Every structure is written in C-alpha cells, then in structure tokens.
Amino acid sequence: MTTTARRIFLLALPILLSFGLIACRTPSPDNLTRHEFVHPEMGMPVRIVLYAADPAHARLAAKTAFDRMRALNLILSDYEDESEINELRRSSGSGHWRPVSKELWTVLRHADRLSKATDGAFDITAGPVIQLWKRARRQRALPAPDRLAEAQSRVGHFYIDYRSSDRAVVLWRKGMRPDLGGIAKGFVMDEAMHVLKQHRIRSALINAGGDMVMSAPPPGERGWSIELPRLDSTNRTESAFIELRNAAFATSGDRYQFVTINGTRYSHIVDPRTGVGLTDHSLVYVVAKDGITADGLATACSVLKTEAALKLAGGEGGELMVQRRPGTEIKTFKSAGFNRFIAVSRQVSTKESNRPSTRH
To answer: For 208-221, how does the pLDDT look when each residue is reduced to its tens digit (9 = 90+)?
Structure first.
C-alpha cells in the first residue's frame, strides 16, 4: 500500500468503523415489543412469539421461519405422499442405496444413535405397528396377533444402514415404514429458530403442540415461564411452572391419546421392541439443549423404565421429570438438575400454556 493510499485508509477508518457499528447494532431491549404469529404447520397450529423493534421486521422473520418449517415437512412427514421420507420408504427391500438430503440425513443419524443407546426403545422403523395401533384406537379392538407379528417383522433400526461417503441410506426389509413423528418436530423447530436468529431476532419462542424451543428470554425476564401440564386433569392443585432460556422443552404421555380395551388402558405410544401400546399411565417432561434432543428423549423416556430413562437423559445432557400412575397414586421422579428450572411462585406475563404432544 502506498503512503497516499495508507493515509486515505486511516482517515476513512473511523467512518468505516462507525458504519459497521450502525449496521450491526442490536435494537435496545427498551425498543422491543412482543409479536405473536400462529400458522398451521406439521398438522397442528404452530405459534411463534418474538420480540422485535419493527412490526414489519417481525412479520418477515416469522414468515420465513414458517416457510422453513413447511419445506422441512415436505421432507420429513410420512403424511405427505411425495415427501422424501416416503420416497425412501418406497425403496425398502430393493437393496438400493438412496442418497438423501442433508436434513433427512441429520434426523436419521440422530435417530439411529438414539436407537442404539436405548436398545431399540426408540426406533423410527416402528411405523408398521404404529399404524395397527392407530386402527385399534379407532375400532376399539386389539390388533389381530398374526397381523401384529407380521408388522413387527418389518420393525428394527438394524435393518437400516448408512453410507457417509455419499450420504446414502438403504432399508433392507421390504415394507419398512420409517416414522419420524417422535423426533422430527424438534429438528424442525431448531431450524425455524435458526432462521429467526438469521433475522437478528434474539428473543423468541416456538410452540408446536406443546413442544417448545426458545432463545433468549423476553426483555426484563429471567426466562420463558412455561406451565407444566399435569398427568391428572382432575387434580386442582396450583399450576407449576418452569423457567427456560436458550433451551428446548418436550413432553410425551397418554393423557389425551389412549384407548381402553377389555379393561386395559393402551397408550398411543408403542414400544417398538414388543409392538404393543404402553399400558402404564405416564407423562414425561424433558429439558434439553435443542429441540431434536428434547423431542427424541421425550419419546424414548416414555418407553423406558424410569431408572433407564433418567440415565439416558443424563447421558444426553438433558433433565427429566417422570410422572407415573400405576394405580391410584401418582409417583414423580426427577433427574438431579430438573429442580433448577422450577419457577418460584409469582405472577408472570410471559407464561406459555402447555399440553402433552401427540406422538404417533
């Protein structure tokens, strides 16, 4: 650089720095206002609450986040006939390795790791038996033993192999039906939150059917205050809340989704290892670093026995509370760190209502 050029650069440097500070400046918390948007995504109303200084900026950020969720649903949902996961399903038994998108690969690999960690208590290949139990709830009749056995023969995470070199997947058994309902929603919310952060939204919460992902808390608050659903809806005790920031929260249970057949209560949650709906009335609450972890843990911990569930959650960096009612008495179990999220009794303006998610 010549002497003249260096002199011009040094003279201009304060202006450039000033421009950079102006361009990257984050709005003052005093200027931020609350904005709420609700839109049907993934077969449910999804709510985005965010804080922004400008309403137009808030609308654009929310719209872009919803657009991202919609695009991911066309990849991950087995309800969309032309989705990528259904295209993969149709290749089952062919022996052909099928390249998949980065998004589907991420969810599948996370699910595979969780399946191995739980010895199959979490398993995305449980789709065939899940379909039978959906029919059982509608017809209020147990699946026929021969049909259940046939469906169970197509279940097993060990029937899927992965090839990292070209991000390809193969489903070895014919008629396999991957179901990402117990993990994909968390990933979709993570991706939507990433979009909001790209739009410089620092304080936001996404609520999809009771599962939530949140970033920094609302201005002036310690965290997002979330009301915990209760296992017993007839219990009139005072509501309990947790306060979270930069975290994810998921619940799973049979409070709303179950069927009673011949005096036995069967949950909509199926144990992939047996192919049978769970028969213990339970509700689990998970706090984790991100949505995909919380979502997967909530599903897995519903199936696992309490001690194994607590161990799994701790190994994944999450915190867990489990409520079970084997008879007339509700029993509560918590991981060592769950209590730190319990909010003190106070009037809050940012509380988020919750209910257990519908997990197919």
So the answer is: 999 999 999 999 99
